[in-house]
Structures are given as structure tokens and as C-alpha cells.
Amino acid sequence: MSSTMTTSALMKNYQRLPITILKGKGSYVWGDQGVKYLDYTSGIATCSLGHVPDYVQEKISEQLENLWHVSNLYRIPQQEALAEKLASLSCFDQAFFCNSGAEANEAAIKLAKKYAKDHQKPERTEIVTFSNSFHGRTGSTMAATAQTKIHNGFTPLTPGFTYLPFNQQEAIEQIDADKTAGVLLELVQGEGGVHPADVQWVKTLYAYCKEADILFMVDEIQTGIGRTGSLFAYEQYEIEPDAITLAKGLGSGFPIGALLAKNKAAESFSPGTHGSTFGGNPLAATAGLATLEQITDTNFLEGLQEKSLLLTEALTKLAETNSLIKAVRGKGFLIGLEVENKAGVWVEKLREKQILVLTAGENVVRILPPLTTEKEELFTFIGVITAIAADLEEKGE
Ligand SMILES: Cc1ncc(COP(=O)(O)O)c(C=O)c1O
């Protein structure tokens, strides 16, 4: 295997970067040429405890010795323990497990429709989502995603989605309660450019949904499991959603997704209504449980908030003196730098200096450090990006 290896037998749906990563530990990954990179992508907000975290590795290894998979026709103690842990840490009562973010959102969409039917409102079949959102790539979640660039080439879209403007008061006035089963939104839009939802807007939307008995569902696939500085982003909005979806950070890189819901909604998933072969199998549930144990360990989230403040303050200071940086947005370790030029240029320059970051659209550099990153690593990152910003400004690139 090498960086130049042919990928001809793979479909070309991913635009791959010119490096091949073979090993990871903590905040670092190593390429096939032996080059070490500081990984501030975290596998797109997934390896939140860094790469191959010791405790999770230990727990998965133990589980590998005993049982990998058993179907959901049987009780799975690891899955029950994970559900209980999630319920004890949130405002939710029940969990459904699956394998990815899109699959978790599929479950949420189905739950909202079923809830409406079960509550004598069969005409409520629509799900409201918001401009610039991202909810996944499957049929329904692509249709839920309110971005035409994601839809291109795939029409007709799955019907049943209404798109309203994000962060706009008028959106709430436009909801048709007679037709709407649920609302699905991100509290910090990740793929859409790192845009936090306005607290007052969310509270008003939430109050409206509560009053109208429309399920209020938050897509926490990118924001959840500590990424924004609290275990769940909804905690920062003083709301208690009816349901949230999780994936990415829940398994430290082991594939797992989840839908959490309050009893009143969860009861609509009666036996036979929904399922997933691999969902919450012993290995995945073990990874989830071990990850949560680490993230909810004493002082973990406080430490993260402190580190996040350090990084955002440094970036904000940089933005004040560098004309290429228009804005610094985000929460916790989900940070976006809106730049005048192409975000891809910054990603490339940082990669040349052995630091990996992402884009979020054309003009946003997305920075997703592992939640475990050390202050020293943050100082390295700040130093390198400051030098790159000065260089790009000087050259007018
Ligand atoms: C907010 C949000 N929802 C859903 C998804 C889809 O998750 P997955 O790629 O695991 O299907 C993503 C992935 O980036 C996401 O960021």
C-alpha cells in the first residue's frame, strides 16, 4: 500500500486526499511514508477520545474474546447497559441502536410519523428541516438535508420534508401544524458551515412544537458526546427535546448510532415497527459504553471547556489582525473559521505542516480536535495557523 496506490476498484464517490493513514494514537496519525500528523479532524468528529484510546481498546478486546454479534431477537446486556447510561445522563428514557448517523435519523423520521398516527393525527406526515442542514446520504436523510448540492442527480426525492429558514423567526410562523409530525434540526450546523443556532430562536421553536405536540428532534450526530463542551448540545439551550440522534463520537470510531427518546414518543416503536441487524451488538455497545465512561469521567468536560476557550480566544485574536479570517464560529471543539479565500487552501497549507483539518463548504475551515488534545498540541496548532495566515495574507492567496 502506498500513497499512489490505485483505487480503481473503489467507486469514486469520495474525493480522496493524497495521503494514506496507517496508524493512529491519541491526537496523532501516521501516514504510509512515516509522516506524523496532528489530527484535528478526529475522523470527522468521531475519534473524540483520540485514536485507539486505551480504555476503549481494552474493553473492546475483552469483548472480542467472548461474543461479537448476537441478533436483537435476544437480550443484549451491553446494549441495555448503554441505554441505561445514556438515559441516566440525559432527559431521555429509551434508546434504539443502529450503525450510523443517517440510520439514526431514519429512525427519528419514522418515529415522528408513527407518533402522529398513534396520536390520532394521521394527516401529520411532514418533517420540517432547516436551510443548510445536513442529516445524511440515505434516501430519506438526503431529502431531509436542505441543500440542493446534496440532492443533485437524485430526484425525485423522498417526499415529506418541508425546508424552512434556519435561525429565522419567520420559520416558526411558517410551520403548518396540521401537516407536521416532527421538526429535526442541528444546534450547530456542522457540514453546512459551522453555524450555531440562536438560543432564543431554538427556545421559541421548541415552545411552539411543545404546544402543538409536534416532535422536537435534535440531530446531535456531530454535536453530541461532548463535542460542543457539554455532553449534549441541547443542554446549552435549556430545552428538553422529545428525541435526539447520535453516532460519530459515541463509539470512538467503532460504528454505532442511536436514537434517544422520551417515553411518550419511544412507545410508538412497538415490537416489529423498526429494527437493524447489527444495531447495538455486543461489540458496538461495549465501545459506546466505554467511550461514555471516559467522557463523563470527573472533570473531563470542564477541561475541554477550558481548552476550547483557549483555542477560540487565540483564533478570535488572529481574526482581529488577519484580513483573510472573516469569522470564528462554533462551540466547544466544533470550530469554524470563515475565510475570504478557499478553505481548501488552508487545509493544504496545514497538511504541509503536518496538521490535518477539514473544510465545511467552500469558505469555512473546520477544526475538530480530539476532546483529549493536550494544551501543548493546541499551542502548536495556534502557532502554525498563525504563521500560515500571515503568509497567505502577504501573498494574497
Ligand atoms: C449532523 C449530521 N447528521 C447526520 C450525519 C450522517 O451521519 P453518517 O455519515 O454516520 O450517516 C452527519 C455526518 O456528517 C452529520 O454531521
UniProtKB/TrEMBL annotation:
Positions that bind pyridoxal 5'-phosphate: 101-102, 134, 219-222, 277
Entry keyword annotation includes Cell membrane: no
Pathway terms, separated by semicolons: Amino-acid biosynthesis; L-arginine biosynthesis; N(2)-acetyl-L-ornithine from L-glutamate: step 4/4
Necessary cofactors: pyridoxal 5'-phosphate
Gene3D superfamilies xref list: Aspartate Aminotransferase, domain 1, Type I PLP-dependent aspartate aminotransferase-like (Major domain)
GO annotation terms (biological process): L-arginine biosynthetic process
PTM sites of type N6-(pyridoxal phosphate)lysine: 248
Swiss-Prot/TrEMBL catalytic activity: N(2)-acetyl-L-ornithine + 2-oxoglutarate = N-acetyl-L-glutamate 5-semialdehyde + L-glutamate
Compartmental location: Cytoplasm
Keywords: Amino-acid biosynthesis, Aminotransferase, Arginine biosynthesis, Cytoplasm, Pyridoxal phosphate, Transferase
Assembly description: Homodimer.
Protein name as annotated: Acetylornithine aminotransferase
